[in-house]
Amino acid sequence: MFLVIGFSLNGQNICSGNLGENIFTIGDFGSGSAAIIQMDPEIAPGYIYSTNPPPNDGYYTITNNMNAPQWSGLWASWLRIQDNSDDPEGYMMVVNASYEPGIFYEETVEGLCENTLYEFSSDVINLINIGVTGHHEPNLSFLLDDVVQYSSGIVPQDAQWHKYGFTFTTGPDQTTVKLTLSNNAPGGIGNDLALDNISFRACGPSAFANAPEDLVVCSNELDPLEIIAETINDAAIQWQLFDSITGFWTDIIGENDVITYHSDFNPGAYNYRYLTAGNAANLQNEKCRVISDVATVTVLPIEFTVYDTICENLPYLFNDEPILEEGFYEATFVASSGCDSFVDLFLTHVPEPELLFDHLLLDPLCFGDNTGAIEISNISGGNGPYEILLNEVDVENRIEGLGSGIYNIVVQDKFLCQSAREVSLEDPEEFRLSLGNDTTVNFGTIFNFDIASNYDIASGGWQGNELECMTCVQNSAQPFESGRYIFEGVNELGCQAVDSILLQVNELGDLFYKPNIFSPNDDGFNDVFQILSSSQAIREVNFFKVYDRLGNIVYSTQNRMFQSEEYGWDGRINGSPASVGTYTYLYLLTLINDAELTVSGDVTLIR
Predict the structure, then answer these.
(1) In the predicted model, what is the mean pLDDT of residues 225-238?
(2) Strands, DSSP E only, in 492-568?
């Protein structure tokens, strides 16, 4: 009997030691190329199997990919996932929960060992997408012989797999149990989930080999190495060695003690583990034993024979010394592992060939950018495969993303024979544009931008107020206030340039001409009174009123176009000539930006 204290994960008691083989041999639902398993696995008594996804309420499906064409009708609220393993064809169980509690999975396990700790667990994911509201959340129960032993609680809506489960100890004479996963939450909208890696395993104490350090030794090691099992006292042990040819673990006959010995010092990697159980009888039952961590013994060789060939006239670095002549050489190296290595080198030369290649240079499209490229082709001579170095860095035949500058191209064959040349990429003339000097304009004046450039401008974009167009190259603005205007132009090569201009706007009040005298004597000169302005910023005269010295209105008009001369005062009151003297006037104007402006003053009438 093992005495193990588990640790809490998601609120449940999960085995904190080592586990045995999964007694549920199909607990991960297997794998296969078909997106949907067509045969009913008959594993969920409370549900109906569906081969036409997505499953409706009370149905389930075994699938390996919810992105497959068979899932084209999947609801938008569901995740599109694969199973929880590294196997791209691994299957999982997708469940659309019923309205009433039902059994997702049930299996009876026989041949267990009494008084032995087991773990029953499953990976679960909430299938509702993050952010979707109004859906029930899954909630599972784990049952042992039809009695609830553990509940998962709400499975979070976080697009993540979660492991839930519990541990229990079989009683005296108990060798069979029925294990059940069931649904607690209501169905209808939500309570949709996927299950994978349903697991039922024996749980033992933490079991390490060499606690669990790996060993690295030299092949001239003489003394056998101890590999020590760290487990509870008096546990039954069976050491195993991994067979890299068959891919299986095999028992080491007679190795049942806490210590086993490694005595094979042929170079290679050797993997050890042990099976352990409370007694020898349980050790023979794969449903009752647990598996230790793996300890690896790596045996490094100490003798090497190297045959190598290099281009003549090139130094060959051997034991930090350059060799210029072909022949036989010996050296002793000390590896980082501490092993002394003896190396025999047989070095031969090949004559330096005439290595030929073509290159194509593509200069950067724009000044200062990285759109240049170098392409290497038609390599011949020497012995392939060939390696291309650009400024001492391995590259492919075509190197893109280059700026202007000098580049050193080296082509070398497998014997390091080389051909080198120096090339350069040149920047084109820098793309420049100018909007001219900062300037002053009158309020409401239409200002036409004049762009000077050393390239044809294909397109552009503007920033600023009251622009006629935001993407035109030729553009104008009618500013109401001072501001900076920025233009970013693009030429036909895609190069960009930018410039700006400050337009300083005069105040509107400084732009009026206010006559202070007029003579309505029908001589054709200065016969009508009205204020004048060359500004195009005035849209309408809301009203224009003239008052005598007593404050009486002698003339009034409204809703006139400002530039019209028809609304001016002709010096008459009710059709009769007004008296000579000084009169007061008041204008209310509407500007083109919908602002209103009041203008007032005095004018003297003479005859």
Answers:
(1) 87
(2) 496-505, 512-513, 517-518, 532-533, 538-547, 553-560
